[in-house]
Amino acid sequence: MRKTADGFKKMDGERRIKVLKLEVDYELATLYEAMLENNEAKKNECKRKLERLRQELIRLSSK
Predict the structure, then answer these.
(1) Residue 5: predicted pLDDT
(2) Which keywords appear in this protein's UniProt record, sorted alphabetically (predicted)?
C-alpha cells in the first residue's frame, strides 16, 4: 500500500512540475510584454511570480 501511495505522490509531483514549467513560460511572456511597454509595476509582479515558481520547482525537483 505504501509503495502505491508513494507512486501517486511521485506522479503528482511530476505533473505539477510540468504545470509549473507552463506557468513559467507564460510569466516570461508576460514579463517580455511588460518590458516592451516599460511597465514597471507589471514587471515587478511578474518577477515576484517567477521567483515563487522557481522556488516551487526547486522544492519539487529535490524530492
Answers:
(1) 47
(2) Coiled coil
pLDDT tens readout for residues 7-48: 545 668 889 999 999 999 999 999 999 999 999 999 999 999
Residue type (1 letter), 28 = L
Arithmetic mean of pLDDT, 41-61: 96
Contact between residue 27 and residue 50 where contact means Cβ atoms under 8 Å apart: yes
Q: Which three cell numbers stand for residue 3?
A: 509503495
Count up the domains in the chain and report the number: 1
Count of other CB atoms within 10 angstroms of residue 46:
21
